[in-house]
Amino acid sequence: MNNKKGPKRSLMFYYVAAILMIIVFNSFIAPMFFSPQVKEISYGNFLQMVDEGQAAKIEITENKIALVGKDDGDKIIYVTGRVEDPELVNRLVRNKVEFSQVIPKEPSPIVNFFTNWVLPIFIFFALGQLFMRYMSKRMGGGNAMSFGKSNAKVYAEAQIDKSFADVAGQDEAKEALKELVDFLHKPEKYKEIGAKMPKGALLVGPPGTGKTLLAKALAGEAKVPFFSISGSEFVEMFVGMGAARVRDLFKQAQEKAPCIVFIDEIDAIGQKRNSGGQIGGNDEREQTLNQLLSEMDGFDSSKGVVILAATNRPETLDKALLRPGRFDRRVPVELPDLKGREEILKVHSKDVKMTDEIDFNAIARATSGASGAELANIINEAALRAVKLGRTLVIQSDLEESVEVVIAGYQRKGAVIAPKEKKVIAYHEIGHALVAAKQSNSAPVHKITIIPRTSGALGYTMQVAEEETVLLTKEEAFNKITTITGGRSAEEVIFNSITSGASNDIEQATRMARAMVTRLGMSKEFDMMALETLNNPYLGGDTSILCSAETAAKIDVEVLAIIKAAHAKARRILEENTDKLHELAAFLLEKETITGVEFMEILNAEPRVKEELVADVDASNIENNN
Ligand code: ADP
Ligand code: MG
Ligand code: ZN
Prior knowledge:
Its main location: membrane. The protein is α/β, with parallel strands linked by helices.
């Protein structure tokens, strides 16, 4: 991709390079080729050469004597140190040698001035320039000396290789963006009816859902100049530069209208002003934001400049940015649904060689909650795995394994887990699966494994919902917590002791139960009262508490009650199905990984005799020992 840079690489740089080259050439390289060789000799040898008539010419300097020979004078110059020798002149005259005393030359004042003043200053500035350039490169490109240049990359059509076809799913977002393009191309249509187009649109959504990709695709489709800049690029090295850059960006944009300006990660400059009263450091960003606000007010949208911005933290943006007349249109770019995931997988496997019988739907179903970026990664991991295993085509199992890699990390093949611990892990995982299967509202088990992963998971139970739902009922939420407590419950029921293996489960169960009480209104005590709020709906699940300390204490009581009830229910289910628990755990211990189908087969089969089961577990135990 091409981009317009600020000023050209300064001429200064070339001057310095040229001068350095001349100096190096004159003082090192040229003498090597063009000058005669210099040979040091002793004073005795020198006198001998003079006496034998070998000397053609002699030059005497302050502390050296140079002798040019008669035969090899153009190849070798003999040099010796000057010794106090009153006889020398007589000897030279006697031998008829031409000789002269060289008077050291005073360099001319001009040269003197040049070498002592001009050159050092010159080099000083040149080094400064280089340093500046280096610094500004490290700080995100551009030339630090070009104060207030916007640094926006300008893309012309044909320079962008992305189009809407590269963005799978996200149909609503694409629709909204197409409308903007339509406006740029046919403004009369809108003017006629008296409609004003929005000045700006804000793409909001979790990371990796394709916001930047959508903007790039828009640039490829719009056939108008496209300015792209990241919010952090505004705020750089010098105070006051951010505002100047905004000014420059809008000036350029208006010259090039109709065009699109895209500000990625706008939260870097668009955060709420005066929030929290931090000390120092905020002025710069505020100035930049103020400039942006005033520029957006200042220009006439009928000119055909559309401002597009993207963020995954819309809640932190200054309200002034979001009011009508600025980014008045919000384009949600959410995590893909089942169909969206399948399409994204397909788009990314376009250039990957795969067998014909790939079931993308199955992969899409197993990746609920994954972002577009993660799905792209899954395809790539699968291709890498195929290469590693020496295949030329990607097959279904590559994809399945790479889903687990992206979710849970790589298999830790070398990890040594004591057989006794392996047994605990097997019961723990089967505990989850069995509790899930015995609750009608739980998603069926897809896969259970006790192969440890680099993420630290010692094993896990993958559940894949039959169909995707957007609502979570209170019963489903409670059943989920019950399933999560199923692992620890199995340890209790079988071994009558507990391990640290449930730490992650404990966290998950608590988060879920807390959400039920504080945000989902699923407790009797608090009815529909909001007690907590999500800080960043798109980034993780941090929450802020909204209630008094007394209420917070009551929340804890309520959360504990839910978890205790779920835990008790899980134990009950397992106690009623101990036989199946033994049987399934033995099977898992033997196979290490079992599918949901195998799991259901054993679960629905006729029960076997108890002694046989215990023998099974012991047998696999011994196997593992060997
Ligand atoms: P963000 O929303 O964080 O800006 P990006 O646009 O940078 O996300 O997406 C990162 C990568 O994820 C893209 O380069 C692309 O490969 C992939 N991706 C994300 N969403 C989609 C999608 N809807 N269709 C195809 N690829 C996608
Ligand atoms: Mg992005
Ligand atoms: Zn667990």
